[in-house]
Amino acid sequence: MGKAGRFACIFTPMALTIASLICLIIVGLGGTNKNNSTYNSLYFFRANTTDINVTPGDLNIPHNPLTDAIINQTTEAAKDALDVKDFYHVSLWNY
Fold first, then answer.
1. DSSP string spanning 51-84?
2. Listed residue (29, 47, 28, 37) closest to 89, CA to CA
3. pTM above 0.70, yes or no
4. Is the pLDDT of residue 1 over 70?
């Protein structure tokens, strides 16, 4: 096992460290150029807000058609008033 084992034990962590640094640089570049589609597709987190809904059970309100209608209308009105987007992309430099 001598030299081959020693080489493997030194080379493997070094290669994985270099690979992780390269990945961090690539993800760090994401979101820096709005005109480049490749950079814009790299992000840390993507929040999908298309199907946000609130049920009466979430608010401890009795479940009936009237409260369902009121909650659905107020949820849609709040989404329109606050201009909630469908997706939010969070990268290192912006969102």
1. T----GGGGT----HHHHHHHHHHHHHHHHHTT-
2. 47
3. no
4. no
